[in-house]
């Protein structure tokens, strides 16, 4: 029987607790997690919640939680990180606009899953949305993707916090590095960066 760390939730052999550093932000972080993504041991939403303990991870198939979230997302203070034809480059957001934001919403899932969640929840499409024009390349090598500009949920959160809140995001990157360094899956499952 595999033993798991009670704090970080990873197997004790790959415990990353010594690499978790709290990241301070004035923004409320909400991650809507696709039900299939929740099953992946390598998903990075858990890392975000370890570094930013106030993070809320909401299962996308939890109808009551999603309805509650929709009622508490005021358009003038909430923003969705999601590229669309109406989204704005996060790099162009003014200091005045940033000062009005209090809630940052991300979707944890593949692009196809994220697209489906936005279609299933039309209220998400009504929120102001930001996309990335100049995000750094992904350093997450233990998940495969065919998209050159794809970021892990942690990397997307980190970049959004850097641009919107000028937060010190080093703790997030350290947690992701630790997970990758301790990951015991086969080398063939790693992508080459």
TrEMBL record:
<keyword id="KW-0808">Transferase</keyword>
<dbReference type="Pfam" id="PF03942">
    <property type="entry name" value="DTW"/>
</dbReference>
<dbReference type="InterPro" id="IPR005636">
    <property type="entry name" value="DTW"/>
</dbReference>
<dbReference type="GO" id="GO:0008033">
    <property type="term" value="P:tRNA processing"/>
</dbReference>
<comment type="similarity">
    <text>Belongs to the TDD superfamily. DTWD2 family.</text>
</comment>
<keyword id="KW-0819">tRNA processing</keyword>
<dbReference type="GO" id="GO:0016432">
    <property type="term" value="F:tRNA-uridine aminocarboxypropyltransferase activity"/>
</dbReference>
<feature type="domain" description="DTW">
    <location>
        <begin position="1"/>
        <end position="188"/>
    </location>
</feature>
<dbReference type="InterPro" id="IPR039262">
    <property type="entry name" value="DTWD2/TAPT"/>
</dbReference>
<protein>
    <recommendedName>
        <fullName>tRNA-uridine aminocarboxypropyltransferase</fullName>
        <ecNumber>2.5.1.25</ecNumber>
    </recommendedName>
</protein>
<keyword id="KW-0949">S-adenosyl-L-methionine</keyword>
């Amino acid at each position: 029987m595999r033993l798991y760390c009670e704090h970080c939730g990873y197997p004790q052999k790959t415990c990353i607790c010594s690499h978790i550093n709290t990241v301070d932000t004035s923004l409320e972080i909400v991650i809507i997690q696709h039900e299939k993504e929740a099953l992946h041991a390598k998903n990075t939403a858990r890392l975000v919640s370890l570094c930013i303990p106030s993070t809320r991870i909401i299962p996308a198939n939890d109808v009551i939680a999603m309805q509650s979230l929709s009622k508490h997302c005021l358009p003038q203070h909430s923003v969705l990180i999601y590229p669309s034809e109406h989204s704005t480059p996060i790099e162009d957001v003014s200091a005045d606009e940033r000062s009005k934001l209090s809630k940052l919403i991300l979707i944890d899932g593949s692009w196809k899953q994220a697209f489906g969640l936005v279609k299933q929840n039309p209220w998400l499409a009504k929120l102001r949305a930001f996309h990335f024009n100049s995000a750094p390349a992904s350093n997450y090598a233990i998940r495969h993707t065919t998209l050159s500009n794809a970021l892990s949920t942690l990397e997307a959160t980190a970049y959004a916090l850097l641009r919107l809140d000028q937060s010190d995001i080093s703790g997030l990157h350290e947690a992701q590095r630790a997970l990758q360094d301790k990951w015991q899956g086969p080398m063939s499952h790693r992508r080459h960066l």
